Amino acid sequence: MVQEKYDIIIAGGGLSGLLTAMSLTEQCRANGAPLINIAIIESQPITHEPSHGFDARVLALSHGTVGYLSSINLWSVVADYAQPIQRIHISDRGYYGKARIDAEQHSVDALGYVIEMTLLGRALYQSLSKMDNISWYCPDSIENIEWSQQQVTVKLSGDIKLNAALLLGCDGAQSVCRQFANIAVTQKDYGQSAIICNVQMEKSHQNIAYERFTQFGPLAMLPMVDKQTAGKTCSLVWTLTPEQAKFHFAQSEDDFKRDLLRAFGSWLGEVKSASKRLKFPLSLVQADDQVFHRMALVGNASHTIHPIAGQGFNLGARDV
Question: Is the peptide bond before 218 cis (omega within 30 degrees of 0)?
Answer without folding.
Answer: no
